[in-house]
Amino acid sequence: MTSHVSPFMKNLILSFDQMDDGFTTVHAYNEEGMRLFTEQWISFISFQHEPSFYGLHHDEESNFSSLELVELFSPSSKHPYVHVSGFAPEDESMIATIQQASTFWSSPTLWDELTFEEDSLVHSSTDAPPAAKLLLTSAIQQKLYSVGLTLSDIPTLLPFFKQGGWPLKAQSGQGEVNVALRLSEPESSSDEWILETVVRGKKSSVHWTPPFRKKQSPIADALPDKWKVHAAYVHETQSNMLDLMSVEASTDLFLSRSISDLDVRHFLRDDAARLQALGFEVILPSWLKAVKESKLRVKSNAKTTTFKTTAGLNEILTFDWNFSLNGQAISEDQFKLMVEENREYIRAGNEWFRIDSNWMHEIRQLMEQTENENWTVKELLFRELPDALINEEDTSDEDDDPLFQFELNQSLKRYLEQLQEKKELPTTTVSTHLLTELRPYQQQGLDWLVFMREQGFGVCLADDMGLGKTVQLIAYLLHVHRTHLTDKPSFIICPTSVLGNWQKELARFAPDLDVHVHYGQTRSKDESLAVELLALKPDVVLTTFGTASQDAEALSEIEWCSVTLDEAQNIKNMHTKQSRAIRKLRGEHHLALTGTPVENRLSELWAIFDFIYKGYLGSFRKFQENYIAPIERDDSENHKQKLRAKIRPFLLRRTKQDPDLLLNLPDKQEQREYCPLTTEQAALYESLIQETLFKLETLTGFEKKGLILKMLSKLKQLCNHPALYLKEGFGEAEYMMERSEKLARIVTLAAEIAARGEQCLIFTQYIGMGHLLQHCLSELHDIDPPFLSGSMPKQQRDNLVEAFQEKEFPVFILSLKAGGTGLNLTAANHVLHADRWWNPAVENQATDRAYRIGQTRFVHVHKFVTIGTIEEKIDKLLADKQALSEDLIQSSQWITEMADEDLKDLLTLG
């Protein structure tokens, strides 16, 4: 361990632990060797790092991506009064590697030393060590992904990068002017669009372009006198934009050229998206995106001669086509002529309509396919068609009609509705090897899983926590491996925390299945894995998400009978190495198990569907345009309904509140335990609020968000205990309880529960609160509760869960992140939430550790809320978020986006 002595410098001693998922865990120590809390040191190395809200995203966690390491340690971000050193020699080496990569990152010659070979970046410099090169190229890839670009865009972007366009940042303009690219629709007498460079003053909303007589003048001559001093900047910005576009034009003159409908399509699809990703301003006609809902309607009547049984899924359909434009019927020949002319934008009266030629070609191709191919009912229901799965609605407003609509004869329509609702499916005989009885709704789940496998469609089983997704999957595996014999193994990927649980559940319910666990340092890797599986011939292979990511290459070479993801939300971040690796696995059938198919963003739903049924939701860009933007931005009920209809055939979701399930679970009572602040807490609370509100008046929008997020975390810790907020050590337990009514109530309640011979779970999101609860329960009541946090090894975690279920200890404290999913803790009949989580779905998952199948007693849920504080006010907001969560959609709105008056009301101490 090294030390740096200076009266003005703060010395941070860092250690680095590279994780399996590509992230690096960083810990900091003081000069006495004591480990610091993350929030005690994170602000010193991220005080200029906006993407992490100046370190606030790392309030509890200290895991960093390659991109974050390179940006945080770049010369331009270095804190003038902070010196970093390594805890051990290997940490010193890691710091040197990061700093070398950071130096290259901000070097003006970076892109002279990088080449793009075989879809990957190669650093040609002989001065850079291999480790620094690897870290640098990984960071570059992550930076590109963060703005919607990929490595394949690099050849096009190289000229821009070499001319100072790296690192990527918004093009903020120079002094008084801003330069943009504008696309204007054709005049009434023309079919030509205008693409031109425009300039505006920083304080003006009016865009200027040269008059006709100066169109051919050099930029410096064409500019007004007041802006001539900025001619070089205007020239440079326009040159950069032209380098990124497929438009040929002189860089010395203001761009002003006519383009066709086809050019507009290419510009919007490629050039505009790339320019906006790189921070350039692109101005489009306001109607351009909304106009996609044009007045061109296509209806097709699908009929079969008869339709009676499931075998009818393979019956042949016949189609009758009808077209209308702006409410007027057009013939099939007229439609075909519009397709051949490639027209996209058509003016009818004073209105413009976009007739998407790509879409029209797809319809034309669809017509040809239905004429030349024998389409079946199955293809009608599941094929990727424009709006094919939209439910028909009775409406008097033609504008609400879908662009593309199927009309079905009554018998076919009735049957498809039954199929959408998953009713009257063929019954699957339960294997005699299953050592339990399925509940009626679990039998329905098994029938559906088997039916979807036979039809070749992936599935997402999204039943509520505790309804038995595991046993339904085990019944499915027995059917596949014992009823329909196969020589291919089934593959299950799960979080490390529940790997032991899967082993026990398989052994308990299906001991006839041969299970192989692919995990640990001694596991077979590379080619030896396939050889081992060929020799062992297991029915089921179990592994974890981290191991699957590490061994992705070898695992992707194996053809699996089925691939199942348990807690499938682990692949929600689609750009991570883990998510991409798992989505490449090859199985005859892909299954996702999750109680929360959407935790926060619709992009998570897309990632799960990209695994279970690749291509069904289209490319991510298309999904973003069709669903994410209108739902998360505009809260469009129409688009929500479209998405529900589209995913319904592949998603089975049942909740404990569903009366049709006849669960006969014991009652559950949720109640708020309201606690007042102590005098000390109230004074600290008021002081922090006043200090923060004063600062907010001087900050920009982005800095304001960062400050609010930091303050929210401090307030929540202060509501728990002032010692956590002040970063103090723990004193005598009685004194600690006097300083916080909430702590006293939790400790007292837990002790009373234990005294009655009952058991309870206590969830908290703060490590310090968990340790404080341990301290007080031990000192005052001779109860030594274990604390399950993310750093606990798997074996120790499994042992604690088993011991708790065997009633070996009465109180179990759990970190909300580490213990909120995947654990079966039905021995508890009380659940205590010490602090509230912003996402109600996460809190409910934690409650479901106790309130699940296997629970035989009344479950009492205690949610501790500090009166008059942000906790009480957030509690009301949680009810609204819960409604969104149950709808499988969660808004991306955040507290930081509240109006100033609403924010002050939220923060004011009641």
UniProtKB/TrEMBL annotation:
Coiled coil (residue ranges): none
Enzyme Commission number(s): 3.6.4.-
Keywords associated with the record: ATP-binding, Helicase, Hydrolase, Nucleotide-binding
Superkingdom field: Bacteria
Gene Ontology molecular function: helicase activity; hydrolase activity
InterPro entries in alphabetical order: DUF3670, Helicase_ATP-bd, Helicase_C-like, P-loop_NTPase, SNF2-like_sf, SNF2/RAD54-like_C, SNF2_N
ATP-binding listed as a keyword: yes
Family annotation (Pfam families): DUF3670, Helicase_C, SNF2-rel_dom
Domain Helicase C-terminal: 745-904
Occurrences of domain Helicase ATP-binding (ranges): 450-615
Name used for this protein in its record: DEAD/DEAH box helicase
